[in-house]
Amino acid sequence: MAVEHEAGVQTGIPADAQAALAGVYASIDALVAYAERNLDLDARDADWTRNRIFELFGLDSYGALNTSVLSDGTLPLSRESGGLSVGKVRDASRADMPAEGSGIAGQAGGEADRGRDGTASDAPAGGYAYPNTLLADFRTAAVAAGLFEPDEGPVYADIVMGLLSGTPSSIEDSFEETEGTDGGMEAMHWFYRYCVANNYVKKAVLDKNPRFDSHGLVITINMAKPEFKNMKKAAAGNSVAGGYPKCTICHENEGFAGRNKRTLRTIPVTLGGEEWFWQFSPYGYFHQHGICVNRTHTPMHVDRDTFGHLLDFVDRFPGYFLGCNAALPRIGGSVLAHDHYQGGGELLPMHKAAAWATFAVPDFPDTVVEILDWPGTAARVVSKNRDAIVEVSDRIRLAWQGYDDAAADIASHDVDGNRQSAVSPSAIITDRGYEMSLIFRNNAVSEQYPEGIFHAHPEFWPIKQEPIGLIEAQGLFILPGRLVEQLGKLEDALAAGEGLPEDCADFQLQWSELAAALDGNRNRDAIHAAVQDELGSVCERILGNTAVFKDKHTTVSFLEALGFVRQ
Fold this sequence. Notes:
Layout: H1 15-38, H2 46-57, H3 62-69, H4 132-144, H5 153-164, H6 168-182, H7 184-197, H8 203-206, E1 211-214, E2 217-222, H9 231-237, E3 267-271, E4 274-280, E5 290-294, H10 304-316, E6 321-323, E7 340-344, E8 355-360, E9 367-372, E10 378-383, H11 386-401, E11 421-430, E12 433-442, H12 470-473, E13 476-480, H13 482-496, H14 508-518, H15 524-546, H16 552-560, E14 565-566
Parallel strand pairs: 2-13
Antiparallel strand pairs: 1-2, 3-4, 4-5, 5-7, 6-7, 6-11, 8-9, 8-14, 9-10, 10-12, 11-12
C-alpha cells in the first residue's frame, strides 16, 4: 500500500512513473483551465470535469503527485525525454490567437476579414484560441505514462475535448442569447470561435494549406481532404456502417463517438418553416465554411422551395452566402442521400463576377437577370423583392431542366428517362438586394467522356479529377494534397534543366506549357510563379469544360426565349 509523506510525494510508485503521471495531471489541469477560459466551462464544474477525464484512465493520485511536483507551476518532463517541455504552463486563453475575421469576403489563413469592396470590416473582439499545443502536451505525457499508444492519441484528444466542451443545449442557449443582443452574424462568429476552440474546426491545420489567386480564381491545396476521383468513391467515403447515424451529416452525429464527432455542435435553423441545423466543417475550404442540413434524412433536391430556403438563411445571417449543389451524380455533392446546403463567411470569385449581359424582366420591373462573365454557364437574378427572386429563379430552373440540344451534347434526360440537368443556386445579400446565382449543370456521359461530358476533361486529371461541385463552380478550387510533392518535383526539374520526372509522366501537358512559358528561365521564383499561373489556367479551363453553353450568345437566346429583354 502506498504511503503519502508530508511533502506530498506518494511512495510505492517508481520515481519515473510519478514524474510521468505528474505530467499527465499537469496537462489535464492546463486543458481544464483552457476550457474555463475558452469553452465556457463553469468553474463550479471544473473538478467534476477533471474527474471525468481521470475516469478514462483510472487515475486517482492527482492530489498526491500533482501538488509537490508542480508547486512552482512548471511541467516536470522535457520533450527530449519523451515528456512535456519545461516551463510555466502557458496562458492557453491567449495562445495562438490571430485576429478574428467576420465578413463574407474574409480570407482563410487567419487574415482579417474584408468587406465586399475590399476594405476592412468591423470584426468582433478577440481572436481564436487553439488547443493544439495543450493537446500535444497531453498526448505526449499520456504516452510516456503508458496510458495509451501514440496512434491512439487523436481519439483520446477527441474524447477529452468532447468532455471539456459544452452540451448542445448550452451552446444553443449561448448562441440565442448572443443573437438576441448582437444579431445573427455576431452569434455565428461566436459559434465559429467556439468550434475552433473546442478543436472541431481544425483551423490551425487549414491555415497551413497553400492558397493563392490565379486567373480570377482562388486556388487551394487541401492537405487534409482525401481525394475521391469519382462520385462512387466519394459516396463510399461518406457512407456509414451499421445504419446509425443514417449518414455522415445526420443530426445524430452530434457527439457520436463512432466517427469521432464528440466535439461536434450544431445550431438549429428554420428554413421554409422546416427544422434544419447548421454546423461548421472541420476541414473547411474557406472562411467559416459550414453546411446547413435538413433535420429529416431526406434526399437532396433543388426545387422552388430551395430558393426560399436560401433567402431565409441569408435574411437571418446576411454576412454569409448559402448555396446548393445540383443534387445529381457526377456534378458535385457526395452526400446525395441527405438534403443540405453549403455556405459561409467568404465571398467566392463568382459572386464578384461582372455582368456580361443584362436583361429586364417585364412582369417584375424591379428585377434584372444577368449573364455572368464567367468560364462556366451562370446567370444571376438580382432584386430587393423576395417573391421576384423565387419566381424568376424557378422559371430559369424549369426551363433549363427541360432544355435539349443534341448538337451541343445537351440532353435533359438519359435513355432511361433519368433527369440530367439541374441548376446549382447560391444566394447572397448585397447593396443591390438579393442576388441568386444559378449555375447550369448537366451530368450526361458519352463514350468519349465516360466521367461526364461537362466534367473536367482527362488532360486535366493530373491536377483535378474529382467532380466539380458548388464551391469550385463558384471559383474556389480544392486541389488534392498530393500536388504539393508532385509540383515540387516539377519545379526541381525545371530549375535543374532536367526533363519531366518519370513518376510525373501524367503531367505532360502541364510540363509542356510550363516549359513554353519559362522559355529556359531557371530562376526559382519565376518557376514557382509559372506553376501557380499554370494551376489557375488549368482550373479556368476546367470550368470551361463544365460550361453547358460554350458560347454566351446561346445563353442570351435561352433567356430571351423566357421573355427576358436584353438591355
